[in-house]
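Usage

Read records sequentially. Each one opens with the input sequence:
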Amino acid sequence: MRFLFVIDPLPGLRPEHDTSVALMEAAQRAGVDVWAAEAAELVLGGGGAAAWARPVRINPAERRAGRWKAPATWWRGGAPERIRLRPDTAVLMRVDPPVNSAYLRATYILDAAVREGALVVNNPRGLRDANEKLLPLTVDVPAPDTIITARSHDILEALERWDVAVAKPLEGAGGRGVVMVRRSDPGLAALIGLVTSQGTRQTVLQEYLPAVAEGDKRIFLLDGEPVGAINRRASDQDFRCNLAVGAVAEATVLDESDAEICRRLHPRLELLGLPLVGIDVIGGRLTEVNVTSPTGLREIELLTDDRPSDRIVEWITNAAAASGSATLGG
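and closes with the structure output:
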């Protein structure tokens, strides 16, 4: 068994923070061969799906003084090889958004890998079908009032009801492009033009939830079950609760409303082939379902003395073995 991580360039990853690196370390601990490739290195043809990938060895991060510390040289890679994506390979598709044409091309190639018996987490069809901002609107769960529009009329009408809203780009991640919109803003017309590209691009407009002052829970789900959670509290200089923009991670526990959201969400995630996701919950309301490359695992493992990364690797290994047996008629 080997794990192929389809990820952004390795030199740009942050080993103290990135969930992909935590999963690589966990796979290595489990004795699984770790390989890495970028989306542009996927290949289709000449017998099926393949990747120009390199074997990778991770020098693990260590916990020191309440934080993760990684060696300066935290990874070493071998020469790239063309490897087939067959039942002996589990593919972890963890390229960061945006979900653009290059991302979609990669998922089409990974479709072929699925047909040949490779386990792809998350399923490429599900990655295409499940927009992270829109998925909460397709499930019967508590969620903030939301509209998707490019029209200033719709935004102004919503602000009449809410007074304050949060605008998000449909394809964004890490808090990039997220702004607060107030009905009283003196530059409101210009701000609406900015977030909608002058009325040519839909934006996500969500009712502002005052409960965000208490933080935004990131809950990791594995096959529908919570395997870890943190609370992310915004800094004094920002309203966004994204770790990438300076929010602080805190230990947390799940309450019954969180558990109920997870239960209601599971059938939809299962239908889409999305076993590994990170959901965001503010004040008992589901705001996003992160399916591409959810982060936060490092912080969970730092704050809880737990290692959900080991459980994730074990689950993927078992699922890949079962998928391979079915493909081979076993």
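Summary fields computed downstream for this record:
- The first helix runs from residue 19 to 29.
- The helical segments are 19-29, 101-115, 124-129, 152-162, 188-195, 256-272, 297-304, 308-327.
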